[in-house]
Description:
Layout lengths: L7 H13 L2 H8 L3 H15 L4 E3 L4 E3 L1 H33 E6 L1 H6 L1 H11 L4 E6 L2 H9 L5 E5 L7 E16 L11 H4 L4 E4 L4 H10 L6 E5 L2 H9 L4 E5 L11 E5 L6 E9 L6 H21 L1
Parallel strand pairs: 3-4, 3-5, 7-8, 7-9
Antiparallel strand pairs: 1-2, 5-11, 6-9, 6-10, 6-11
Amino acid sequence: xxxxxxxxxxxxxxxxxxxxxxxxxxxxxxxxxxxxxxxxxxxxxxxxxxxxxxxxxxxxxxxxxxxxxxxxxxxxxxxxxxxxxxxxxxxxxxxxxxxxxxxxxxxxxxxxxxxxxxxxxxxxxxxxxxxxxxxxxxxxxxxxxxxxxxxxxxxxxxxxxxxxxxxxxxxxxxxxxxxxxxxxxxxxxxxxxxxxxxxxxxxxxxxxxxxxxxxxxxxxxxxxxxxxxxxxxxxxxxxxxxxxxxxxxxxxxxxxxxxxxxxxxxxxxxxxxxxxxxxxxxxxxxxxxxxxxxxxxxxxxx
Length: 302
């Protein structure tokens, strides 16, 4: 057998014998018989092609070749142990930390209560949060900067797993001065109103543009965040169209919230994870709490 194929167990036995200067002591340390240790050392010597020990009835002393091998193996084993210790530290930290990403619409309205409940249940847990749009989240997931992402489904997720939790319709936030009392509006119904929409870099706006078709909209403001759109609507600057999940759970006093009635004016919201990623206990428990709370919110809204 080539020296390139030396068994790691032979090297471990060699280290014990070299450190103790005795096959008998090496046998005691490894719970084997002295003859088994002697046989393993002989196998190692045959594989490397040199004698490693000078044997006497009382001891086993390293030859010059044995000294050279000992220094190399001891250094290599120390490096391996250092690597294993570092992995243990990473694993210990990972068991107590959960790194998550969340869409801004959810972070502003739903995530606070979820994380507060989780912290009460698991006081030793540490949550690292990144508030980010869905497309950027895929990069974070791929690079393992976050373990899971809570937000809407996005295109091109072949490398990711999407678990839908609820269907999120679009909401129309109608200030009093534009309110005609209807239970809902289509885009055509509100086309002439001054509109406040999310900008074209958002997944929500892309969906609105698709369902709007040829309807010419009177867009007055385009903003990045749903919270900003609702703030402008609250100031009476126009009618805002935002995902329902972005609407605060407490009722607004400055505008009325009704559904957008166009076909297809909804999207799936859930949890996105990288395929093959192995979750630990805290992240599994957090995902289960997210499922429970978002489904409860969806049922309460019905």
